[in-house]
Amino acid sequence: MERIGILRMPLGNLQSVWNALYTSGFDPEFVDEHSNFDDFSHLIIPGVGHFKAVMDHLHDKDLPKRILDFAASGRPTLGICVGMQLLGLSSTEGDVETQGLGLVNGMVTRLPTEGQVLPHVGWSTVEFKRSHPVTEQLKQGRDYYFVHSYAMTAEIEDPVIGVSSYGRDFVSIVGQDNVVGFQFHPEKSQANGLQLLTNFAYWDGKC
Question: Catalytic pick from 81, 93, 120, 148?
């Protein structure tokens, strides 16, 4: 039976993610440094804010190793917005290179400012580049809700599931083994976003 943990963060979309899963028929639970991660079948890492500040928070709570151990067990692991960025190798946000969790072979850089307003806020199209269990039953080229100024560029094509564009193309859905990430907010993306979360909740981590 699915038991979904949502990592508690100091800032972010925690309650809206919980509400979206609950609406879809699940009973998610918030988890933190005091929780037993072995009790959960799925882990969601939400996030809003500055990459380095969020990574510092994780280190302060001794959480990176626990997240890495959870992912290494083969259980489905999902990052949302900054949570997706944390899955990568590093970020240059704030003109300082900060190491990520290294679960996905991608790097996070600033979106272009020429002719663009940052942050990128609103609905943008996601083009699927390959099939994946989390995108089943979803049609190509639908819009999802974004709020971000930085985005992942993949070092290799394999992790890329979906691509969007805002000044440049960027990775909007990433997946490597049992780890996936959404740059957009599925919990704010209406029916298509709820379907993504439902697909993740039923996913066994295998592709």
Answer: 81
Is pTM beyond 0.85 here?
yes
Dihedral (Cα; 84, 85, 90, 93), 10-degree rounding? -170
Q: What is the rounded distance in angstroms from the CA atom of residue 158 to the CA atom of residue 45? A: 22
- Structural domains in the chain, CATH included, are 4-202 (3.40.50.880)
Cα torsion 33, 13, 166, 132 to 10°: value is 70
The one catalytic residue among 29, 114, 185, 207: 185
**Residue 57 annotated among the catalytic residues of the structure:** no
What gap in Å lies between CA 164 and CA 173, rounded to an integer?
A: 9
Segment 147-184, tens digit of pLDDT: 999 999 977 778 999 999 999 999 999 999 999 999 99
Catalytic residue among 42, 120, 148, 187: 187
Note if 187 is an active site residue: yes
